[in-house]
Records
---
Amino acid sequence: MLVTNPVTFSGNGPGSHSLSVRAVDQAGNADPTPETYNWVVDQDPPDITSVAVPANGYYTSGNTLNFTLNFDENTIVSTTGGTPYLDVIIGTTTRHATYTSGSGTSALSFSYTVQPGDMDMDGIGLGTALVLNGGTIRDAADNDAVLTLHAVGSTAAVFVNTGAPGVSISTTATSPVNQPFTVMATFTEAVTGFTSGDMVVTNATLSNVVTTDNITYTASVTPTADGPVSIRVPAGAAVNIGNNANTASNTLNVTYDGTAPAVTSVDVPANGTYKSGNVLSFAVHYAENVAVTGTPSLEVVVGNQTKQAVYISGSGANTLSFSYTVQDGDVDKDGITLGANMVLNGGGIKDKAGNNALLPLNNVATTTGVLVDAAAPVVTAVNVPANGYYTSGDVLSFTVSFNENIAVSTTGGTPYLDVIIGTTTRHATYTGGTDSTALSFSYTVQPGDMDMDGIGLGTVLVLNGGTIRDAAGNDAVLTLHSVGSTAAVFVNTGIPGVTISTTATSPVNQPFTIMATFTEAVTGFTSGDMVVTNATLSNVVTTDNITYTASVTPTADGPVSIRVPAGAAVNIGNNANTASNTLNVTYDGTAPAVTSVDVPLNGIYTTAGVLSFALHFSENVTVSGTPSLDVIIGTTTRQATYTGGSNSNTLTFSYTVQDGDMDMDGIALGAAVNGTIRDASSNNATPAINHAGSTTNVLVNTQHPSVVLSSGAASRINMPLTVTIIFSEAVTGFTAADINATNATAGNPQTADNITYTVVITPVADGGTSISVPAGAAINIGGNGNTASNTLSFTYDGTAPVVNAQTFDVKGESPTGTIVGKLSATDAGGVIQNWTIATDGSGGAFAIDGSGTITVKDAAILKSKAGTTVSVTVTVSDGLNTSQPAQITINILSIFVNKAPTLDEIADENNCAGTDVHTIRLTGMSAVEPVQTYKLTVAADQPYFDQLTVSDAGVLSYQLKPDITSGTANVTVTIKDNGGTQNGGADTQQRSFRITVNSLPAVSISSDKGNNVSKGDIIRLTATGGGSYSWAPADGIISGQQSAVLQVRTMANTTYEVTVTSAVGCSNTGSISISTIADFKVEATNIISPNGDGRNDKWVIRNLDSYPDNEVKIFDRTGRMVYQRRNYSNDWDGTMNGKPLAEGTYYYILTINGSSKTAKGYITIIRAQ
């Protein structure tokens, strides 16, 4: 073919192409040698086939993580606008591995240098796509590379660890110490390479360095000499799993003191004579400050007896105070002395380092001038009154004898003896005997004194302000000894009273028993001593001479009285009784009877109506329980229950008519009243009902008529309808006002029998219409209102549909059947149907179907009308009403085709649930035709977004709703130009992509010992819901900060928080609060074998470090305390004062200061190898 220059080709597909061209001049001469042109069309973008990742291992600060991206063809990298990178996820932080080399090849290299603070111990991760960061990666044909990463190597074992482990040195020993002690070197994580030689120690040696978890190392420290001891771990002593060396520890400083304190001197009381109550004070001086536990004492020899001067104060200083209070009977005329040694009494005296003080008392001052004289006179015997009964005015005399002569002084008051008469203490006052060994006392009996089991004496003589002393001035000991017996010394001044009573209730209707009750036993009382009216007495008996019973038989109806006069009997003291009360009883023996019955008024009683009855008796009666009357209604017997009248002669009863009761020929009464009815004398009433009123016209009707509504009309209407209303029986009072009509009016009901009614219902407006009859609209012969009817519901539609004005465009050359447009109409409630073309201005070019779709009917007529506008009129029905004809405009277009705008494909998105705002930059937007413009819109198929927008500049922004936790939404971006769609043109293009919302991990934390644990318990907290875990720092953590299981030791209420990351990189946090209970949960070993083999050499109480303010006491079988220690630190080795104790069983008591909790148990010492 002949072509001219230039030559343009279009439509070339992918692959290799060639063109041969010969040049021809104007004369038609052709070039004999053609030129051949070859080219390749490449539309395939380069794709990543695999990603090589760093070798498995641990990477620390300064190490490089290298990655290689392999493409399916050579690529060219441009970093002019920015350097591409890969997202490298280290722990919860995203780092950038930046592009380093490979442009022009199929393998691109990226690297990231690990920084201090990076940490990921469950394997690093990679993002899902390569990030251009303003740069470009294209093939030779300038196709942009697909950035999604494929076939990524596993990084599960590529770990990053830049943390330097810390270490702290601690001990449970309290400074100063007096023996070897244990230290703990506690690293913040497991380490290796740590030995005893890595610790720096001064003034001590280390031994037995052990660990069970490579985190906590224990070592025994043996001080070399008295003075400071220090231990520390220098930096670089050990490395963690990432080969990071530890930081330097703290320096632990402890003071060692192994010298026991000794007594330097003892101060004694001043010279003089000390009497009873005087205090002997001593001061013991030590070479250093000492602490005291328990109550030590000094042995003070007074005469030939050893007393104890007990510890008073001084703990914490170098001088301890002791004292002894001189007691009655102490005598030492040649000077007291002190024992040779301090007596600990199970207590202890130690210096601050815990060294037991030496017990010998050195340099005791002289005590030859410290004298004691405290022998007081004592009572040897007390003579009491002679046995017998004493009454008012009688004198009780007593003699008190001493072991030596004594002098009585009454200047300040007169001494007396307490004489106990009954429950009252009287005073026998001193009458004489001073300067002798016998003192006299007396008391005169007063009216009201009473003691019939023997008087008593107090235990001591009462000085009452006076004095009783011996010649030496020692106050007499006032305790009474050898007191004579007063068991038969009685005092009686009482006059017996008497009360007449009975258990019978007045009035009575039979013989009854009375009781004459004296206030005490009497004699001389007979039946003739009682005064009785209208009755006779018999059978007077007693079993105790206090209560006398007798039978009283009334003589006739009326009052009966009984009394006991004064002087009828005497008590043991020969005192005569006072007069009794008078007992009055009424006698009645006649039973009450019904005299007449009032019945309800004549009439018809319906539901809730009350039938009332009144029974009249011959006398007042009392009701017990709930009597009732049998009321016969129809064939059913009902109970009219008692309502009132007790204690009168008329009882009332009532029955409330119930639904279902029916008796239209008159109710009836039963023959007798039911229940217990008595008069005041407890005579049962005769139950027969006499003289009851007529109940022939007392009728009962509780039946409620029912009513049913019906109609033959359809559920959807457009005119009035007739409703039939049928009652179950004849009713009255039913009118139009009794009909509930919604959105309608009701005409007057029509009936021929008062049972069946018809009524015309006229709807008011389009919409729902309902008709019902409410309860109580009409009543039957018994006055009972009807029950509520059913409800008839209809839809009234009296409005024709309205066709919406519309304009359609159709190409002039469209074939028959082409859809021109679909019409729409509005209607209140019907179904749009029966579309019809009324007139066709095109001359028959168009047709319409039942759904309102206009199509080309005749293509030839349509083509002849191209470039014109025609009108057609249409109508439509809703099934009841037909619309007015509406005009529809149709533009028959000339042929012009608008090209669709363009928009590049949009990559799918993966996000974690959250409310962050995300943006996507769209590319490839164009309206295609010159001068045309375009608009962008966006929509989603799920209601996931609080924000979903797109700008015409191509920036799409979205924000998820807070309650969207997971799911997938398909998002469609539409680009629309303003070129129109005439003649089959296209003005829109759509691109859809998927946004996947990944749920945050559902964090759950459980404790293997619950949320309330004992102080010091070691618990395991297990988190679930993710693939990796990171626990926030908190008190008590032992291990597992980067794993699902955290091991902690609780010492106080603590909240532990974990961050959980899912396999897709989504993170969430959760927490658990552990409450620590100070329930004193400790566990003591009960066997020790202190034989130096390194096992059970010390007595250990586990978890005791949770209660540092403790005290331990250990006793042998005799109760002797063999060991005592405040703030015990698991170091007792079965010795007492440094000497081994014998094998056997010992007993301990562990207390916590400031708490009532204690622990007790036994310890068995076994020394055999």
---
Amino acid sequence: MEEFFGIPMEGIALGAGAATAAVFAFLGWLYLRNPVMFRYGLRNIPRRRVQTTLIVLGLMLATVIMTAALGIGDTVAHSIKSDAFELAGETDVLIDWDTEHHPVPQDARRIPRALVDELRQRFAGDPDIEGFLGVIQEQFAVVNPRTRLNEPNAWAMALPTAEAVPFGGLRDLAGNVVQLSGNEIVINEDLAEALDAQPGDTLVLLYEGRPIEARVKAIGPTSWMTGITQPNAGGTPGFAADYEFVAGILGWEGSVGAIAVTAPGVVEEGLKHSEAAKAKLEAALAGQPYTVIALKQELVDLANTVGSFFTTFFMIFGAFSIAAGVLLIFLIFIMLAAERKPEMGMARAVGARRRHLVEAFLAEGMGYDLAAAIVGAVLGIGVTYAMVTLVNRFAESGFGVRFEIFVSPRSLTIAFCLGLLATFAVISGAAARAARLNITAAIRDLPEAKPVNPEAATLFGLLRGVLNALVAGGFLVLGAVAAARLPALLPWATLAIPSGLVGPFLYVLRGTNFAHPRSERLEGERIPLWPFWWGLTAPFYALALLLVWLVRERRPSRVPAWLLLLGMLVPPLGLVLSAMQEPRRPIPWAVGFATVGLLLAGLLFEWGLRENLAFPFGAALSLSALWIAACLRYFRYHERSVFTAVSLVLLAFWLTWPTGIYDGVTGELNGDIEMFFLSGIVLVTAGTFLIVYNADVVIPALAGLAARLRALLPAVKIAVTYPLAMRMRTGLTVAMIGLIMFSLIVMATLTRNFERIFLSDDAKGGWDVLVTVNPNNPVADFRAALRDAGYDLAPIAAAGAMRRADITEAQVRRPEDASLSRYWFLGVDDEFLRTTELEVKTLAKGYGSSRAVWEAMIADHSLAVVDQTALTGGDGFGLPEDVLRLGLRLANGFEPFPLVLHDPGTGRETTVTVVGVVDDASTFFFGGIILHADTLARAYPDARVQQFVVRLVPGYDSREVAKAMEAALVQASAESLDELLDDQRAAQAGFLLLFEGFLGLGLVVGIAALGVIAFRAVVERRQQIGMLRAIGFRRRLVSLTFLFESAFVALSGIVLGLVLGVLFSWVLFTSGGTGDEETIGAGFTVPWLHLALICAVAFGASMMMTVLPARGAASVAPAEALRFE
């Protein structure tokens, strides 16, 4: 994998590595400058080992998620690359017929063999081209008379082996070069296994019903030269044969189907020459009906693209866990600060500075961080291994891809560094917050007294808060967004960005001795030197020092409001006004940053509406709601009412937006998988506010419930009261658990509903067995062919014939459109139409039922039925850009409309009339536009894929019948539709388990948070425990109090995630918000049993984490606890 979100991985690795090195160098500098405080911070790590273990488990999650996501991407990319190199071998470039610009019938796409010799002579000695090889690829049915085994679809690669030397030659399993002549062939391992063949066997090849004998000279590896045709095509039977032998069978003497080109060097080295070789060949073949394909490079690019897709997918889903991890880090350091408050107060009293406390916290935090990053990287590799092993197990049940586990050192470096840096950033902010304390209050362990702000709840105070928030970072963010999205604001942005780089350092200096006037400065105090140490920040810090030095003796007592407004519009003036403030003057940061968020929301609104993007629009609306709440709270409106109302509005908006109800106002906005993350964050945040501010309403209900068990009533009341008194801790923990549960519930619910639609028994359309015929050996009469092969027709109740036109063989357009699109077509015969049970979910005017549509198609061969994907284009990964997208939403009674079918080989066009939309379930086996077989044969004569579907007489096993039919028809393979559905369901269930396990890693965070809170609560409430014991609480009741407390918090998060997840899934699924409009009107099912299991596991794990601290609380001796200070 070479890119992530469009950024080169090498650049990410270098940047993350450099930043990590800078962090460690900075910590080393702190240690050398003040080793005492550094060791003071580190000594806390081994003192409470259980708590340290919980902290490391919580902090490691970001690294685990990133390692696993990048590891999956590496594994997928590496596996596809390996298969690509195996497929291509030393073939770097391919010359093929240009079907786009020179459409001709398939049999006419022949390249003269003489061109191979011409090119070989022309490019002899060229540094970018080493050799040319003319080849033919074709399908044969193969029978081994010795073992009586057959393979209906074996790919043959016909080549002159004497000319294959520059390509490494045709080799057997021992690596020996093999030369072929006459009817000699080299079979690959898959064909040898299918036929139980060995060297010396005489096989029978079937082509157009003619048997041709071929002798097995050797067995070779499954590769391009032995018939493998596409990456990840393990299990592809094939063989290599002499060119003259196959050309004589096909009537292709003197012609080839493609010309392979190899560049100097072995397999991977040839990539360096691919582009140059392609350019030279295109110039040489200009004006001829051929196209030049950089085959190996395109396969490598495909591998990187798919790997990047998987990484992005897992990273976005893992973002919920990472977000929960960030909350946990913040929570841990809030609690550590609360625990160490008296200790820090005494340290300050004996001479320690605030920065000394920050340094001690940083040292302790980085100790946890480093351990968590190392453990996380190792566990991330383990998670990758487990996930890939699980995926490979699905491969055995029909998924068709096997991955080779591979995690690159580069990805490990990125995951380790980014996980460590993310944690360090949060630790730095939490350390700075923890170090701000009142010495007296800290020593006495009293709540911090908030300084009186005479400007509170005033418009002037609001303006000052906004100006400070802009200077502290708002100018930088707004300037960057404005410069990127609004050229009209570029002049303002050129002032805002430099001001935003200087502004934060004003607040670094704000509380220092340097910022005070001469009369208040202390002797011997130095300015903070660390901003100089970072190098890039030094010039901006120097400007901040100069500005503070110029204004510290010239501070006015008051600045007029109009000047504050002007400072917001003119960023350099805002810097000066901010520097001129009294250092001890309180700043309303919350409302200030909320207003900056509102300004940012304005820019995001404009961006989203102008470019029809849902993400910036949704983020903007959420930021606006935050501003409303912060402003109303600042002006002292009832806090509970404010946050309840804003939360309800946000919940209502995000639960109705996917339905398209606001499209009339905003227009149709486009979003992708990132909207899942944004919507989850906003919904869970709003839900958490709703719970935290209104949880007291459940106390009477809980008390009433507990009243029936009077012995438990005191424990229940105390258990609910404490979390409500600690709103921040409770809210953070509820949000962590809620985020993870939300992602798990949505994933499980949507997956089960998609399975219900697309993998139900309705997908079979009333058929039981699918028979696929070798295209070069068609079956004219299915029943007659079985009878002639000695098969008893008694199990067959009905048999329908089908012929498929692949997306590469068929083009289509609306009559009013000139541009052509590509699509799949399925031609069916009269017996299929008479007996099928496929449902037509949307009927044209004049048709009252599905049966009426099928009967009409028998009478009128110009009628057709489309699937939902043809209407909307679907949302499948890897669909070509020119796939058919009619852009229609049809309802019953729609007016039939025409489609023009265009044959790319002859240019001939055929018009059909669409009279229905087939049910979504049918697309699994019968996807595409369904029309009569005669119409398909006339419209697309090159469509050669022939299939039959069989309905069995009740009582017969479809699996056994399929095996018997395949044994009878040597040119066909037969599969049970029940078995295919079961395999797909097993793969679906396995992938659901895989994703649930990956997302469930985040539960470690919530569980660790509950454990940390429970351990801290035992210490924090030691005196309370003593008093409870003293007034008669037994040990069991004290233990239950702590268990009920954790249960209340855990259940709040679990229920929040469950309710929001089910509601959001319902809205997405029933409104087509998942990107699949097939789900509209398809109903919705909640898999309650599966969701109950998820919730039970989450709740059980949470309770297990609380048992130990609860038992510790119960073991506290009353006398000792009452003396505790």
---
Amino acid sequence: NVLSAFSAKLFKSTQARASLREVSVVLPHSWDTDSLTCSLTSPITISAVDTPAHIRVSSNHPVFGARPWTQQSQGCGKSGDYIQLGGNLLCGTTNESYHQAASQLLGEWAKFRWGVFDERGYEKDPLFPATFRDPSSNEPRPTSCLEKDKPFCLPNDHVPQAPTKHNAQCGGRAAWDIIFQSQDFHGDRNLSSNKTDAMIPTIHFVQAGPPSIVLVVEDTAVMNIQRRWEFVRKAVRRTVVYDMPDGAYVGVVVFNSVARTATALAKIDSDSDIRQRIGSSLPRNPSQIPESHKCLLCGFQEALRALDSQASDATGATVIFVTTGISSTPQRELDEMTHLATVRQIRIEAIVYPFMEHIDSTYVNKGLESLVSATRGSVFTVMDEGVGNDSKLSMMVALMDSFLGAVRHSTSSSSKIPLLVHNKEYPGGIVSMAKGTFTLDDSFGSDLRFFIYYADLGHVGNTIDLIMPSGKKVTSASMQEDGDANVIYIKVPDAERGEWVYQIENRADSHQGLIMQATSSESTARQISLKVWTNTKSMVTGGHEPSIPIIIYAEVMDGEVPVINARVVAKLIHLHINTEGSKYKPVYIDLYDNGFGDPDITGGDGIYSRYIPQMIGLSGQYELSVMVDNNNGLSNKPISNVITRNSLKLYEGNEKRMCCGSIIAYEYVTPLKNFQRFETYGVLSIVSQTLKDTMPPNRILDLKVSVNLLTSLVTLRWTAPGNDYDWGKANHYEAYLSESWDQAKALAGEIISGMPIPVTAGTEQSVEIFVNKYDQILYVAIRAIDESCNKGGVSNVAELWMPKPPTTIPPTTTTSTPQPTSLLIESISSDITQPVRVDGLDIEELALIIGAAAGFLLIIAILATLCLINVVRRHRYQQKKENNGVEGNRNKRIKTNSSLKIEQDNSSASVDSAVKNVVVVPTLPSWSASKLLQEHEKRFSTTSGPLMDAQLAGFPYQNMQQDPYPDVTLTGNNSDPNSETNSVAQSDPPAYQPSYTSDSYQRYPYDYQTNNTHEDLPPYTPQGPSSQNSQASTEYTRELDSHPSIIQYSQDSPVYSNSLPSYPSDESGFVQPVQLPPMYEGYNDISHKQLVKHTKMPPPIAPKPNVSICSAILTASDPTRRNVTQV
């Protein structure tokens, strides 16, 4: 009912040009359909077709609930990945519920089929708000123009200025323009029809059957070289015996100039003799027919005959070719194979073995690649590696892994295909122990298999230890040897979770080695899945018309929900030999789910993407593989929120549950435990026709505008693009402020000056501009240009509105006759009066303000008077107390020079007579300058004595201006306690706590001022805690000049190369990226002069003080002495 209603609405909205004709409903293989046949309109058929579903019926989404939503990973005009909806949406029982569900499905179908996006806004979305200012009325309005039964705005109602996701991705074009330019309608295809029966689709119910796979192996003379044919036989055996899922139908065909069936299609079960028979069915020796005589079409036709021999329908089967791919296949044969594969819905996977290319060859087998691409298959490549007459072990294992990847692509995700847990190669040459570890987490099943691959059985010594996480050793009874696959394997049916340890005695030759692998099935509790694809399989750079750049996509899911904040790394291997005769180093690429718009469309959808870097001068084929893990515990997955848990009506319009803005706003997430997945995608072809840089910066699609009404400043924010799409950094920006949307889109209008220098791609940038155009809608657009003058696309056009600032209202004047009744009222009309206003205020308001101000001033005056009286009283009391003190201390003396005179009233008198008229200070003990400074440094040294408070230890130098001992009076000339002349007292000086304010306190690191550069300072060796004070460190003492300069402290910082990012391999031989800054690549362009550095050098220390007491008083005017150790 829902599909019929949906077809009718599709027929109406497309003006009778499209409707559903046929629908296949695929039921899970695990369902028992015997009880369902009575309620279905047609019988269930069994099919092996494993095509991606257009619409997926699943459990409710954590945010969207049962409402349908479309996953779109590519840009405007590109088909989406799939539509997903909750099963509850199809459980309605009324016509109203059917039509509501059909209306929701209609809009998502347009996005999925024709590559359009939503023409509505979203609450709290930073890029696509729910409202905007209408350019025709200058008034706010909702960001939507949708009508009932219309999934998108009509062409006449479309507003290109609206900040919608569709306008940003499609450059303001109407959605219906994109739809009618698609392949379904372009060139007057599918014209309007009056047939009403076209609205009723035919529905077929199909249940997924077991996979059917035919291995088609080339048997020509090229396989006679070295151990190529031996490795083919061993790889086929391992694939059939160990990797094929139970219940699959498998057959083997060999071909050269003709083709024949080596083993008919047969069903294989667990540990059956059929696995052994099929795995050993290849001839022991290859033929002598030249490779140029091979017939690829003959092998494909023989595979179809093997599939036809099966009792059930073999539609949707998989054919895996193993061929050298050297000789080109005639186009006639390729066209015939493509036609047969399309009719039978056959998937073709190709393994190019061995891949024999010359140095930096630009050869690309276009025929084989086009055939595989047309049938949704992939190409795997195995490099030809050998020494003399011997082929390397790595070549055999690579062929086995290619078979495993092709089988995984050919079967559904529910099949128990082994997952790679660990992979590492140990070179030979010296007898040693190959030691390693791997982790089996709960994302894998409990059936662990550990493999030891060897080129010769004698390369494996007698010691083979596999230790469980609990410390127990796996017994030798669990080990098995398969000489037909050159492997010793250990099967652990109920493996422990945790870290496993192994050590194997390695006796391999110098040109060989041992390879360790661990595999397991997928966990039934946690289904972590990794899917990899690209927008295209080939790219041409440097031509007059460069092709579409390759974008890598990786979808990471935990069951039916996306995995957020995972670490996803792609690895590209150049499948050629460099000029030095060795392999190229892999290139590692971090993928991101950030929702910046180019290339990642929506943030938080579990799709990680990125452009591949420009391979200047490196034409050829590249093998792509991807690794994902839980990002050191930072990854998580969304869980259902309150809305989706409650039983709300499924058909009411709820904007919060619509998909999808710039980012999916999950309300609840939960962290994920450890997991790791590997996936081999296949081969990409890159042809570079020039050494010039032809890749422009990527588009800026997250330009945002914020307005400060007080300062009339407008802040622009965006994510920096790169030099080559999202790699590196651009050279400069072009930004325009326009009065119309069309001008901004064409980058016309007023040029915005003062734009910042671009930074590394993925970093947010901002700039403030002054706008003095008020009460009108303005538009801003920006683009980046690289150093080769390659111009990026125009950004999304951002809208801004600057209201006119308020002005002062002048005094109101009147021309009417004054009214005698009141002086406070002026006549507005004959019957309306209004208070007189001055500068916008009436008389009553002014009186109130003046009264409040006068009262406030009166309070201030009273408080000031009271304070003055209190000060005078305290002063009188203090003076009286001091006078009493003078009378009581006449017996105490003041030591002075005998020649001292006091001049007063133009007369001279002796000291004795002067004492009578002055305040006498009590005699206090005195100390010498050296004793005083020693005690001061002893008490406040950072290496001895009690430590100062942490807050007091960091005070700035300029605050040390007051007398260090303000309460002490020093008398006499002979104050040295060690001198022969006795002073008044020789007791220790009191402790001093400097008084200062924390306002001038600066957190470390701060710039310390001195004229001496760090090169002039003596060498420094860090030492432990010392009991010596600062005076003992004479070798680190230095005089400082009065005019300071900056000392820079160096810091050992990581140096990022300007080349492509690469990371060290982990034990699996894949990649373990180094934790880089938040986005994209290392900040290799940051000058080291801009980094704070930590060069270990001694701070300068003040010299030993002089005898004069003035040297003990530190002032800002005398910076020649400073204890920097305390600073």
